[in-house]
Structures are given as C-alpha cells and as structure tokens.
Model the fold of this input.
Amino acid sequence: MKKKRWILPVVGFTALVIVINSLLNYMLVQPGLSRFIFHESEAGDFDCIIVGASHGSYGYSPEAFEDETGMKTMNMCMGGEYYNDAYYVLKYALKYNKPSMVILDVDYQYLVNQHDESILFNYIYNAYPACMEKTGYYFSKMLKEEFRGTFLKWTNYWQCYKTIGQTVKKKQSEEYKNYDSSVVSMNPYDIYKGSGFIYRNSDYKKSDTPCIEWNESKVDSGQLGYIKRIVRLCRSRNIDIVFTSAVQDPEMVGHEKEKFNAADVYIKRLADELGVDYYNFNRLKFSVFARDTGSFYDREGHMYGETAVVFSQVVGELFARRASGKLDLDRYFERTISEAYENIEFTW
Done:
C-alpha cells in the first residue's frame, strides 16, 4: 500500500514538469529557419539536393543554379551541419524527393573541429520534424552530445524572456502555421530567398572570423564515416553523388595556401577512394570567377549575396557541361591551390 502512495505524486510531478517545460519551449524558443527549410523540402519535386554547412547556405543560390542546369534545386545546407547531421537531413529529404543528384559541400573545418558537447549544437536536431528517422538521429548523435538540450530547448533562448509576447504572437499567427519565413528573426542584413538560400547584403561590415587550420591528425573518424554513409545512401538509390567545396575568401586561402592545399589533397583522395567526383571551387581560375576579399563577409569565406549568385551561375554552368559530357576541367580549375593563389596581393 505504501508503494502505491508514491505513484500519484510522482505522476503528478512528472506531468507538471512536462507542462512547464512545454510552456517555456513555446514562449522562449524563437522560430528558426531550419523548420521552414525542412518544410520546403517536402515539396517532392527537387532534382538536386545540396547538403552541407553555412558556406553552402550562403553560397549556393538554387535559382541561379537551376537557370544553368534546368534542375530544380533545394539547398539544405545549414550552419552547424556536421556530416552526421547532413546524413539525416538528406534522409528526410529523400522521404519526399527522388533527386537525380545530391551535392555534398565538404567544408574541411567540420572534419577537424572537435566541438564541445554543448546544447548549442542541437539546433538542427531540434528543428528536425517528428518521424522514424529522428529516432536514429537521436541515438547516433544526441546521446553523444548534451542530450538534455533536446528536451529543454528553451535553455538556448533563456535570454529572450523580454520578447515572450512577440514570440507567442508569432507562433499563433497564420504566417507561422503556414510556414511563412517572414516570422523568422534573422540577421537584419540577411534575406531569405527560399529553397534554403540566405542572401547577405553587402552593407554588412566584414568580420575577422578566421578559418580553423587544417590538421590531418585531427580528422574525426566518426564524421568521415558519415560522409561514406551519405555516399552509400545515394548509391543505394541510384543518385549521382558529387562532392564540392564552396569558394572562400582568396586572401585567407592565399595566406594559408599550403594548409588549404593539404586539405584539398586529402578530400580528393577520399573522393577517389569512394569513386566520387570532387570540385574544390577554391581552385577556380580567377578568369572564370573573379573575386577578392571584398566579396566575402568574413575571413572564413562566407559570401555576400551578390557574389553567391554569380558563383552559383558558374557552378551551374560547370554542372551543365558535366551532364552533357563536355566538361573541360582545365578550363575552370588550376591544378593546385598553391598555383591558384600564388599571385594574390594581401590587403590585411
């Protein structure tokens, strides 16, 4: 009898915690862009899907790429998207789409960056729609992370207590319910162009954020394994899988050209082992794609919107030639990073 007396208080306390936590999540968690990107991917008619991190979200304009290739394209690159995230992001997209091509944009920093296990790395998982795939995602990623952040989402947004009224109003609006991205609180210099592409206005002052240095000894075997899983997933569905690396600030690449060159060699070797084409756009000839440090909003190499549109046109042209069997790599690329940047003049 004594044991039964504990049941009701325990159940009541648990229910109270769940209710309070749900209310805090509703009142504090800001509408994020990832939620809308997942929803857009459900359209079910994309020929090409791009996965990767923030260089891709700011670098690949699906509209410009589509104009050159004729392939309807969805950019599912997101900031903080490690390769284990990219695998599950792609799995979700493939629930609704049967693309003929998948592009994995490989940022070497996500191979060597050993991030801490904090709740700041839960954003993509938290935005991931409820489905069977999310269960596998949880056990493969979140049990190795700060898993409490998946339940206590509001802890990422505790500082937003002053805007609770606005947040609740947004979530009750028709725009939010109908997945209108206008309710997302974005950087004031950013414009969401749809299909996953973020256009950053060139009025934004350049940041000094640098790149993480390449070091092959720090390559995360787990992340490497997920790149291989992405390739296997695509092959199992007869999807053409291609690796790319978005172009970056030429002065940063020029400053660290030996390390960028070493990363390029490593990723090219990996691609060859997997039988995948790899296009490192840092090796693009300047005569094909003119750029300078002013084309990027930080030293790490995120593009301003106008740069990204032109870049995406060049990439689209290359892929169109590839599809027709008329791609001449020497027309587009220098042989090495070192050759491509040997004549760069530095301004900082």
User: Anything to note?
Assistant: The first helix runs from residue 2 to 28. The CA atoms of residues 223 and 338 lie 27 Å apart. The beta strands are 48-51, 73-75, 101-105, 190-194, 197-200, 240-245, 277-280.
